[in-house]
Amino acid sequence: MQKEKAGGMTRQTPTALTAKLQEHFGEVTGRALAELPGRWKVDQPLHPYTSFRIGGVADALFIPASVESLQALLRIALRSGIPLFPLGNGSNLLVKDKGIRGIVILLGQAFRLLQVETGGEEAIWRVGAGVRLARLVHQAREAGLTGLEFAVGIPASVGGALKMNAGTPHGTFGDVVLSATVLESNGEKRKLTLPEMGLAYRTSSLPAGCIVIEVQLRLRRGDRHLIYQQIAALDQRRRETQPLAFPSAGCIFRNPFPWRAGQLIDGAGLKGFRIGDAQVSTQHANFIVNLGQATAREVLALIDHIKNEVYRRYRLTLEEEVQIVGEE
User: Fold this and answer.
1) Do strands 177-183 and 211-221 pair parallel, antiparallel, or not at all (unpaired)?
2) pTM: predicted TM-score of the whole model, two decimal places
3) Dist CA 47 CA 96 (whole Å)
4) S-S: 104 plus which of 61, 79, 197, 217, CB 3.0-4.6 Å?
5) H or E element: which one contains 33?
């Protein structure tokens, strides 16, 4: 394989990249993929891209240089039958140990627009799907806008937050969403209204195979001092109750209202229970933490054990909130 030096780093030459893409996706398709503007990583381990620090190898990972490049990828994938998986900030995600077949899409700088469309008492923001919630919370706080305080500490991108309707007991992403622009599986743009998104508790009904590229948010003018106070209090609460010292995927299970999953797991005596390096957090029972070298297989075995024990004790079936993808 040909390689060249660039800025002290070794990288694949275009010829080597094309050959690897052809190996996975065929001669014609591989050549077409290699010509797309953006960055490719072939045979890419995914654990560095997940908050769990767990995950096998993807056939390829693509960071498109523009919306047009992403549209072209979607058209090639549809025509060639290549599976696509859009990866946000890698939180609330467990990638299995044999990784993901097809192409993982990571939205980079080209999808991090943050534009204020209107100001005044009601502010409308146009936000790229690659923007992280942490940035939105900071920008809103500095602008004296309320509505995003609940999101402090949620390690998600805007696209992922919309897809999962990320939230806490203090609010959800859907509370501030006006509309979203997505690319459908054929690459065509489509604007969705809030009712069309079907946002509910940790879920949505976005069109199958679509990729969120932009979201329109509505925030309200608030008391800057109170906004600062609420964000600080929620952040302190998060630090006191969540196991931030270890890699995790956030809450593993949905809350089976009116109960809370963490209370049920704690009541079943499972805090601290571990399989390999996957452990039920001693701080928050609805978190599974990676003590260092946990595998997806260990996490999945621990999830099954938790579900079985909670059902045995309470006759309640817990449902996963974490998204589980890839091959065993």
Assistant:
1) antiparallel
2) 0.91
3) 10
4) 61
5) helix 27-34
